[in-house]
Specification:
The protein is about 35% helix and about 20% strand. The chain is α/β, with parallel strands linked by helices and about 500 residues long. The strands form 6 sheets. Strands 14-15-16-13-12-18-19 form a 7-stranded mixed β-sheet, with helices on both faces. Strand 15, helix 13 and strand 16 form a beta-alpha-beta unit. The structure holds nicotinamide-adenine-dinucleotide (NAD).
């Protein structure tokens, strides 16, 4: 995490959202929000004080008393309105996102759109939060379940999807009847705050959605707070593991979606042109800063001859600010991120991988101060090299080799991460074997970034996820609710009396 930095006094301040009001923080700790293409300071974000975090939780706790009893149709209609407002403001949201995060404008719209899909799903809450009923489980006895909200829930989000990931969290938590505390990434909180303004405009009542800003201290306060019942985290494996342990010990429900190293297998029978296009797009899009980016291509057999084709495609991509039309990839989020990626490229060279394309220190006319790293390709990559063992989170594609599909699957399953993967092949049998034997959450077949739509849930295995239930879709309804099982009998004067029953059986 980057420490708070000296701040530009004149830059506008990002507000906290407490009790339905956007308020100025009283903190003395601030950090700049910086345009990664230009280094322009766009705003300053506060690190909320313990009292402000306390006030946010208190307001959410108070609002829960009435929100939990609000009719399901009322809740649904707010999200119907909210999705309309997001659509109407799409261009403004995407522009804000590009300015503070760096991704291209079309990709920023994609970021908002993938979140919008979850809002649309939340508008169908009436069909999603249904219980079950079994009639006559014993004589005149019915058993049914109700899915009740938990109370105050919280979400902690990463910098790389500042629209989509907050929208993975608070709409479903609130639609199921909970109130919410959001802690956005301190690196790019502006589009998240605009989405919160629109949420209030859509009708979310005061106190139901609250936002606090900050870093480690704010996250720890959320993990420890006795009035917060559930925590949803998305971010790095290191921080996620800490959040999982700390919040679980404090008795909360926790889900953590974490780091990745996503492999794509390329079989020799794959459609060469389409497969290389797909993998290059998924590796370098968003400057490689997607948890579902393809960072390793495993070329099987004859496909190993395709390395020059990957390099040629990568070399042709246009690197510039996200606002420049025709840009394929923009800058990485910060100077520190750029230095880290450049350092890992250097280690890749030292540790014996072949640097096929070096994107360090590129020339980006008009944006000389930006945090740019161009597309970089290594071949001959093996486990034990830092570029393979670490999540680079930058525009670097590692190419590895395997003799056959079994070896490629074994290679992927031996990597600690299990977020996303893909296979490129024309063989149904190979694809099915891959689907069955691979130990990874999201699996793509001739699709490089298989992020599920909200009819399903985002998932992950091994080091990429902690907690049983995913952050949206069907699973999140279970995550944000407590199942209550009711077994009921209604006496009727004409019913035969059974006498005293001292057994466990229902009669
Ligand atoms: P990060 O872990 O640095 O930050 C995530 C959140 O944790 C932020 O809100 C941040 O303020 C907070 N935080 C940072 N350091 C902390 C600390 N020491 N203690 C407590 N909280 C702390 O992640 P990031 O750099 O913002 O995002 C990139 C990471 O997120 C990558 O590893 C990526 O793979 C992962 N990610 C995963 C998914 C997924 O669904 N699996 C999705 C998006 C991003």
């Amino acid at each position: 995490m980057n420490a708070p930095t000296p701040v530009a006094a004149l830059a506008p301040t990002v507000k906290l959202l407490i009790g339905g009001k956007f308020v100025e923080s009283k903190t003395t700790e601030w950090r700049n929000v910086v345009n990664p293409a230009t280094q322009e300071v766009l705003a300053r974000v506060p690190f909320a004080t313990p009292e402000e975090i306390e006030a946010a939780v208190a307001s959410a706790k108070q609002a829960f008393k009435t929100w939990r009893k609000t009719a399901i149709g009322t809740r649904a209609r707010i999200f119907l309105k909210y999705q309309q407002l997001i659509r109407e403001n799409m261009a403004e949201l995407a522009a804000l996102l590009t300015a503070e995060q760096g991704k291209t404008l079309p990709d920023a719209e994609g970021d908002v759109f993938r979140g919008l899909e979850v809002v649309e799903h939340a508008a169908g809450i009436g069909n999603l939060q249904l219980g079950e009923l079994a009639n006559n489980v014993a004589n005149g006895v019915d058993t049914y379940t109700v899915l009740q909200p938990l109370g105050v829930c919280a979400g902690i989000t990463p910098f790389n999807f500042p629209a989509m990931i907050p929208l993975w969290m608070f709409p479903m938590a609130i639609a199921t009847g909970n109130t919410f505390i959001l802690k956005p990434s301190e690196q790019d909180p502006m589009v998240t705050m605009r989405l919160c303004e629109l949420a209030l405009e859509a009708g979310i009542p005061a106190g139901v959605l609250n936002v606090v800003h900050g870093g480690e201290a704010a996250v720890n306060a959320i993990c420890d707070h006795p009035d917060i019942k559930a925590v949803s985290f998305v971010g790095s494996t290191k921080v996620g593991t800490h959040v999982y342990q700390r919040a679980s010990l404090a008795g909360k429900r926790v889900q953590c979606m974490m780091g990745a190293k996503n492999h794509a297998i390329v079989m020799p029978d794959a459609n060469k042109e389409q497969s290389i296009n797909a993998i290059v797009g998924a590796s370098f899009g968003a400057a490689g800063q997607r948890c579902m980016a393809i960072s390793v291509a495993v070329l099987v057999g004859e496909a190993q001859k395709w390395v020059p084709d990957f390099v040629a495609k990568a070399k042709a991509l246009k690197l510039s600010a996200g606002t420049t039309p025709g840009t394929d990839l923009g800058p990485v989020i910060s100077c520190a991120a750029r230095e880290r990626v450049e350092g890992l490229i250097e280690r890749g060279v030292q540790e014996g991988a072949t640097l096929e394309l070096d994107g360090r220190k590129p020339n980006v006319p008009g944006f000389e101060k930006g945090n740019f790293v161009g597309p970089t390709v290594f071949s001959g990559v093996k486990p034990g090299m830092s570029i393979y063992d670490q999540e680079i989170f930058g525009p670097v594609l590692c190419i590895a080799a395997a003799d056959d599909l079994e070896q490629a699957i074994e290679f992927i399953n031996a990597n600690p991460n299990g977020n996303g993967t893909a296979i490129f092949t024309q063989s149904g049998a190979a694809a099915r074997m891959f689907q069955e034997d691979i130990d990874v959450g999201q699996v793509g077949i001739n699709l490089p970034v298989p992020v599920p739509v909200p009819l399903f849930s985002f998932t992950g295995s091994r080091a990429s996820k902690l907690g049983d239930l995913g952050p949206y879709g069907k699973q999140v309804v279970m995550f944000y609710t407590q199942t209550k099982t009711v077994t009921a009998r209604w006496f009727d004067d004409s019913t035969l009396h059974h006498g005293v029953n001292t057994t466990i059986s229902l009669k």
